[in-house]
Amino acid sequence: MSEPQNSSSSTSREEERHSTPDILISESDERFFQSLCEFIEHEKRYLRCSEEGPDELRYIIYRSVFNKVIARATAYKRLLLTIKAEYDDVIRALQRREDEAGAAQRTLAASTSHPRSLTTCQTRAAQLRERICVLQRETAELQEEIQRQKSSKEQSSWIPGLTVAESEDPEALDGHLKHLEAQRAALLDRKSHCVSLEVKAELDAKLRAAEHHRDQLSVENNRLKVLYQRLRFVFDRLSSWEDEKQQVPLEELLSSTLENVRQTSVTDDDARSIDAELFEDEEPTGVDESKLLADNLDRFIELFDSAQYEEAALLAARSPRGVLRNLDTMEMFKGVEGPPGSAPPLLLFFQALLMTVPAGDALPAALSLQLVRWALRHGAAQLVAHAVACNKLAFSEDLGDTLTEHAQKNPGVADVCLALATVVYEACGLDRKTALSMCRRGLIHSAAEFMKHCEDLTVEDCMWVLCRSPSLSFLQLLTEPQRGQAAILSVGVALSILLADPQQRELALRLLDSSVSRGRGVLEEAILEDGSSSVDVWTGIASLCSELNRADLGQAVLSVLLDQSGTGVLSPDPEGARLMEHVFL
Question: Which of 81, 183, 221, 404 is the most exposed place for a label (fewest CB within 10 A)?
Fold first, then answer.
């Protein structure tokens, strides 16, 4: 009988060991855990503890095991001590209630054994039964509360941002530490781009003082304009009086002139004319210019270092003679980041340039290209569209190629970028790239119409566009006469080039199939109206069709050729006649 018992105990220990989460790593921890399991089984058998129900001996065994676990623990000893204290409190409460219930039952038994107090004992028995029910109900409630607290602890966070299970996982703790370090680095970086409130208040005070000074200068400037206008009026009257040989006395002239001066005021047009005469050069020269440039640069560096990127961008865009409208300034804005939630500093610089560039002028070509590339990568295609539409950028082939490449990689903005590329290519006189951009947008009729009016477009250019945007409809538009005008591209030349290209042969065969399917007259009309292709060209087309296992198309072409004034058209000499005879054989 002992052998099955040992087998059952071993199976029980094995099940408990497998049901325990795999959290022990070293062999020493595994041996310690196994020894605890063996200790529990040995003590339970030795003390003959019951497997179910409350048993004080079993509580003592598990309390001893818990003490051993706590003694071995290091990082979570405080947590385990807290759990053990709660465990002991619950056990003591249960034991106290069981003692009270036992004492009540003994009292009841002693009372009922005396015949004279039967009635009293019955009353007390009823009270005790009621008390036992209350204790049982409170015990059940206490057990539910313990279970609820245990569940809530399992679901609560031991470390902010982590669950209890994650708090015990070294890998999770390492990941959380790296996350906190990254947040700290980001906060320190943001702090380095900020200024203190004292510095901001000082700068705001200086700005208000500068604005007040500017208002004072504006008032003084208006006063000087009025004075200048009046002096010029007096000078003109005196000059005319002198030219008129002093027909009016000087006192009378001055009196009437001063009266007129009091009654007149300086209008906006007069003020602009005064500005044009007094300040013919808007920018200073010499020493004043050097000082102004130095002050402007110092102010820009001050704003940039204090992370006031919007003000710095406007100052750079308005810099005298455009000294800050260059690639170096762009790289400065590109190398910094604004506060979270704000626009990128380089985008602010781009916007400031577009707002301040004079009408009729454009940004330098290199700067335009780099700004457009950055804007497209960061999803600012609408800003690029505004810049192109307002002619604020220097158009170049590289700029058009950049827009085209972005359209091919980003279908969502493909139509907008291809439309902008078309504008750029057309402005640069790149006809074939202009036509190709139209074709890629699906505007093949517009492309064909554009190519028809291009005087410098060669056959090579037409084939370049066609091969990069192959389409039967587009090929028909290029090779068919429109409204009595000659075709843009010779159909014979186009077929010869396409059939010689392995990648484009299918397009040429589709064109011939389309002509043959619409009737022999369509193919005959195409051959006869193609004045740029000789008989030899069409004979070569027929031979190529035969080589491509499309003898039916080659035969259709030769049939049209033979019907035109006999075979003499093809080969006027006997040797040529034998050649045609060989073709038909």
Answer: 183
Number of domains in the chain: 3
Alpha helices in 244-364 (DSSP H): 250-263, 268-278, 286-305, 309-317, 327-334, 345-356
In tens, the pLDDT along 216-258 reads: 777 887 788 777 877 777 777 777 766 666 666 766 666 777 7
Strand partners, 162: 159
pTM score > 0.85 for this model?
Answer: no
Residue 390 CA to residue 368 CA, distance in Å, equals 13
Count the helices and strands in the chain (H runs, E runs). 28, 0
Domain coverage including residue 20:
2-164
Q: What letter does residue 412 receive in the DSSP assignment?
A: G
Q: How far is CA 296 from CA 279, 291, 299, 318, 350, in A?
A: 21, 8, 5, 9, 19
Cα–Cα distances (Å) from 120 to 106, 111, 129, 133, 459, in that order, read: 15, 8, 14, 20, 126
Q: Which two tokens stand for residue 4?
A: 């099955």
Residue 38 domain-assigned? yes
In the chain the first and final C-alpha atoms are separated, in Å, by 108
Amino acid present at 253: L
Q: Assign 364 to helix, strand or coil.
A: coil
**97 in the same domain as 208:** no
